[in-house]
Amino acid sequence: MLIQNPIRFISAALFVVSAILNLPLYAQKAGKTDAIYSGLPWYDQNGKVVSAHGANIIKDKDKYYLFGEAHSDTSNAFVGFNCYSSKDLYNWKFESIALPVQASGKLGPNRVGERVKVMRNQKSGQYFMYMHVDTLGYKDQFVGYATSKNITGPYQFKGSILFNGKPIKKWDMGTFQDKDGTGYILTHGGVIHQLADDYKSIIAETNKQISSGFESPTLFRKGNTYYFIGSNLTSWEKNDNYYYTATALSGPWTSRGLLAPKDKLTWNSQSTFVLAIEGSKDTTYMYMGDRWSYPLQLSSATYVWQPITFSAGGISIPDYIQSWTVNTSTGEYASKKSDIKVIENTNKLIKYKGNWKHLSDSISTSRSATRGNAFSFTFKGIQIGLYSLSLPDNGYAAIILTDKKGKILVKNLVDTYTKLPSSTMVFLSPILPKDEYTLTVSVSGLKPNWSDKKKTNYGSTDYNISLDKLIIKE
Ligand code: DGJ
């Protein structure tokens, strides 16, 4: 937690961001996305980037509802909590700003609202939204709540949830609903609070602090075991998330180590929720994490959603599955088999503008850090994706996809920075009518960069972007 605006960056960024993002994006038609793709922008039915971070999902009747923080590209101020719906967990329809910025007060202008979670109270049928409320400098945190009769809102903000008449003065929070419908508030450090039957107050501290860090608390149950996942404290930077298990929420909690292989930084993400996708044959437990991208959290922060693997040794996300499918009727998941054509960075049909370094170590890649340098590729087909070698000195790549008349269909800035080098897909276009298109990717001259309250600097050291390969679907 704890962030301060890098003012110098923001003023330079604003010019480029507005130049790049002012046009509407291509509307993704419902039913068109065919899998869960981690680490790249998703588009809703209006062609806007899906903005729902620190999120959770609840199933209501035959639909899944995703609640998360809406973001802007200019500051960390609360801009509302968004609600999206989906039947397949791939295609997200924007439903509402379920809780907008309030006219004044604790969730009014220039405040922080994060880690929104929604649960349905089974007795009253009402929907309860819980969140971290704070000042912009993260100095007045508490757990707040809001209620609504309808799942999509509008939710009425009620202020702080109280325990013995006092607020819970913690920042990162989460929720957990047990099989018997009892609701719990989780806070950083691993503290668990039991909600009253009506979900309007807290009646017990079920579990005391387990660990000094443990932000983004995420709890789920499989059988008689509770799994409690959390992150280290590194502001918006990713780290190796870890977990505990117990057979009762009151503990004792046993430390079980890391959720993903060491130094993979939880596949460049921070936990927020685990969704149990229960079907007729199986249950897939889907880890939901955020790949933050400060300060361009609207355009460039993405989602890392991965199936959790269970074994006698515990839980794990042993590999990064770039794209996978889940059958919401049977509950089974599978890696997505791709029918794509690969265009390597050395392909003669790729047009490079300006000076680029063409490197071929373990990965063949082309790199440049000079603003305005670009590459473009014209193809016939229905979809194009970009793989990039993300590195600690990489910045934002400006993506423009045009049709053969030059009309812009998609514009976005994608983040190609990571502390830990990795070659992953960072952009995938919506599925388009079969035709001729041109993808142009340029060095934006922007990079993710910020400092926390202790003046610790985070983020990239340069503006490089890189091209490993393009993939096209014909
Ligand atoms: C990490 C937290 O988990 C996020 O929710 C957010 O508060 C950031 N810190 C802010 O730096």
Describe this structure in words.
The chain is mainly beta and 474 residues long. Helix content is 4%, strand content 48%. The protein has two domains: 36-335, Tachylectin-2, Chain A (5 Propeller), CATH 2.115.10; 341-473, Jelly Rolls, CATH 2.60.120.260. Strands 28-31-36-33-34 form a five-stranded antiparallel β-sheet, covered by helices on one side. It has a four-stranded antiparallel β-sheet with strand order 2-3-4-5, with no helix packed on it. A hairpin with a 5-residue loop joins strand 37 (449-451) and strand 38. Mean pLDDT is 93; it is low at 1-15. The structure holds (2R,3S,4R,5S)-2-(hydroxymethyl)piperidine-3,4,5-triol. Residues 1-3, 54, 114-115, 172, 215-216, 235-236, 270 line the site of (2R,3S,4R,5S)-2-(hydroxymethyl)piperidine-3,4,5-triol.
